[in-house]
Structure formats: structure tokens, C-alpha cells
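Weekly structure sync, notes
Attendees: PL (lead), two postdocs, one rotation student
Agenda item 3: pending single-chain targets
PL asked that the sequence for the first pending target be pasted directly into the notes so everyone works from the same version. It is reproduced below exactly as submitted, 113 residues in total.
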Amino acid sequence: MSEADNAEREARLPKWAQEELRKLRRDLAAEREQVAELKGGKPDSNTYWVTSHEAVAPLPRDARVGFRLVENGVPYQGRVLAHVEEGKLVVRGASPLIIRPESSSAFSVEFSE
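Predicted structure, written out during the meeting:
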């Protein structure tokens, strides 16, 4: 079936169905764009999924990354969020954090007891 045939068929649909098709097409385009970002289709990201020290795949720019430091805890307890903001790495915890320097270029994060 050609594109013209599809357009004719869609024009005969009720207005609500036509609007629903437009919405679904917009949603599909947004999902495809997000997949392209996750696959590295947009290399201007400042956030990456890495293995060891090698960047494997960019995440969306300024993505917030969450870590759960406490397993089997109360929801949100033991959670740390990190993101880039104005050229700085911002780290926030669900409860008070202890930042321990390990060297001039590394630190560890844990929750205070």
C-alpha cells in the first residue's frame, strides 16, 4: 500500500483516531531519538557508561545517575545521585554522606552511621 493510500485511509478515520495516530507517531519519533542517544548517536554527551576507564556509550547530556549503596534497605535509603552541573560533579545522598579522599584524583563516598 502506498503512502497516498495510507493518507486517504487515515483521512476517513474519526478525528479522535487521527489525533491518536499523530500522538503515537510523535511518541515513536521521541523514542527513536532516545535510542539513538543511548547508542551514541549524539556524541556531545558529558555523561558516559564506562567499563574500567573506557567510555562505552554516552548517556543523555547531564543525565542523573543513581547508585544504591545499601541493599535490601528502605526505599531511597542508601541512594546516591550524581550529575554534572555547571562544570562540577554534584553528588547527593538520601542521608548524610562521608567523603573520604583516597588520592589527589580519587575519593570514596559512604553514608554516615
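Discussion points:
- The beta strands are 48-51, 54-58, 65-68, 79-85, 88-93, 97-103, 106-111.
- The two ends are 66 Å apart (CA to CA).
Action: rotation student to compare against the earlier draft before next sync.
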